[in-house]
Design a protein that fits this description.
Elements (H helix, E strand, L loop, with lengths): L11 E8 L6 H14 L3 E9 L11 H14 L3 E4 L5 H11 L2 E4 H12 L3 H19 L3 H5 L19 H31 L4 E6 L5 H9 L16 E6 L5 E6 L9 H6 L1 H4 L7 E7 L5 H14 L7 E6 L1 H4 L12 E4 L8 H14 L1 E8 L5 H9 L1 E8 L2 E9 H4 L3
Parallel strand pairs: 1-2, 1-3, 3-4, 5-7, 5-8, 8-9, 9-10
Antiparallel strand pairs: 6-7, 11-13, 12-13
The structure holds guanosine-5'-triphosphate and magnesium ion.
Keywords: Coiled coil, Cytoplasm, GTP-binding, Magnesium, Metal-binding, Nucleotide-binding
Subcellular location: Cytoplasm
Organism: Bariatricus massiliensis
Length: about 425
């Protein structure tokens, strides 16, 4: 009887970064890379940073550093290295030759985590597509680096499936996944259309990974989405109804988290998921106030929104986790239309958050004050359902109403 070894050898990796410009966040970026590596199931045993004007085009780091890394590999019995930037196929091939070890990059690790986390068929299609495209461009001419991956990080597809290795098979698999993705897109469009016909405003929760987006959705709507102290705990967007204190109903959507250097292939593949924010009426930006890198993270979120062409939308920034920091930390966000301080976990500041949402929605609505004759009373139902009915009074000539209504409804009144 054949015996299969299902346990993978523990991967021990050395983190490698290049510090280039003035604005130096290499250390912090490597801290994050360490978390990513851990999430992917490997251990970081050492880190190396090189100061260079620019990343070495052929080998990412210079010759001297390569020697240093070689020694560290030997010293720490490392099984591979992870570079903090996406390596070109040539860099990956050359480093593999020089170091004779498994060479990975930040992108590969992020893709690996996404593969492990994807739970819906939509998520799985998107991740596998991103993984295969990454792999495809590196197999051409540099197959050695890919075969050097062996098992572990970089070889696992969604659903514990091994990723395809054969170039021709990759090509046909990509074509198949692209077809499936088209169906997914169509499905999303239909859902979105239905939503916009329901006239319910959509609010997209965005933010850096681990900021507390899912926790907030759960707190507000009892959505039961996975919340965990981990990077990229949730990938698939979840939408839930929420009734605001005014009676108005809205849709809240939790989306995939952002991170610095989010892989290009991932953004491409996840476009239909990430696009949820593009069709939202309000962006709810959740920030982890307890994270020392809060400012960098906010910057990355706005940059990513721009990459996704999410622009000119009202933004509410919710400074989350204030139960950890206390109110004394200085928080501000000039890009936001409104800011609130909350604790999604301890349920603090939620009334203010809902009030901020109502304020913005009201700004987008039209004020109506009039008397509806009794035969037209049915229209008040419309107001009640889609707008905000503030006053209603039966008079001799009809029903007197004061309300805010969405523009789309106004015409019908
Ligand atoms: N102390 C404290 N912890 C919080 C708060 N909100 C969320 N957390 C914790 O932060 C961690 C991340 O929360 P999630 O809701 O999973 O974060 P997310 O933004 O959905 O993260 P991803 O899905 O990974 O992108 C979890 O351990 C939460 O329990 C808060 O207000 N206070
Ligand atoms: Mg989440």
């Amino acid at each position: 009887m054949p015996v299969y070894d299902l346990t993978e050898k523990e991967e021990r990796v050395i983190l490698v970064g290049v510090r280039t410009g003035e604005h130096d966040d290499t250390e912090r970026s490597l801290d994050e890379l360490k978390d990513l590596v851990k999430t992917a199931g490997a251990t970081s045993v050492a880190r190396v940073i090189q100061n260079r004007e620019a990343v070495h085009p052929g080998t990412y780091v210079g010759k001297g550093k390569i020697e240093e890394i070689k020694e560290l590999i030997w010293e720490y019995e490392a099984t591979g290295i992870v570079c903090d930037d996406e390596l070109s196929p040539a860099q990956m091939g050359n480093l593999t030759d020089e170091l004779d070890t498994k060479v990975m990059d930040r992108t590969l690790v992020i893709l690996d985590i996404f593969a492990a986390r994807a739970s819906t068929s939509e998520g799985k299609i998107q991740v596998e597509l991103a993984q295969l495209k990454y792999r495809q461009s590196r197999l051409a001419g540099y197959g050695k680096a890919m075969s050097r991956l062996g098992g572990g990080i970089g070889t696992r597809g969604p659903g514990e499936k091994k990723l395809e290795m054969d170039r021709r098979l990759i090509k046909s698999r990509i074509a198949q996944l692209n077809r499936e993705l088209k169906d997914v897109k169509r499905h999303r469009e239909v859902t979105r259309e239905q939503r916009s016909r329901s006239h319910m405003p959509v609010i997209a929760i965005v933010g850096y990974t681990n900021a507390g987006k899912s926790t907030l959705l759960n707190t507000l709507t009892d959505a039961k989405v996975l919340e965990e102290d981990q990077l990229f705990a949730t990938l698939d967007p979840t939408t839930r109804n929420l009734k605001l204190p005014s009676g108005q109903e809205i849709l809240l959507t939790d989306t995939v988290g952002f991170i610095r250097k989010l892989p290009h292939h991932l953004i491409e593949a996840f476009k239909s998921t990430l696009e949820e924010a593009r069709y939202a009426d309000i962006i709810l930006h959740v920030v982890d106030t307890s994270n020392p890198q809060m400012d960098d993270q906010m910057y990355v979120v706005y940059e990513t929104l721009q990459r996704l062409e999410v622009m000119n939308k009202p933004v509410i920034t919710a400074f989350n986790k204030i139960d950890r920091t206390g109110q004394e930390v200085l928080v501000r966000d000039f890009k936001a239309d409104k800011t609130v301080q909350i604790s999604a976990k301890k349920q603090q500041g939620l009334e203010q958050l809902l009030a901020a949402i109502e304020d913005i929605l009201r700004e987008q609505k039209i004020y109506v004050e009039r008397v509806y004759p009794y035969p037209e009373a049915g229209k008040i139902q419309l107001i009640r359902k889609y707008g905000e009915l503030m006053e209603e009074e039966c008079r001799e000539d009809g029903i007197y109403v004061r309300a805010y209504v969405p523009k789309e409804i106004y015409g019908k009144l």
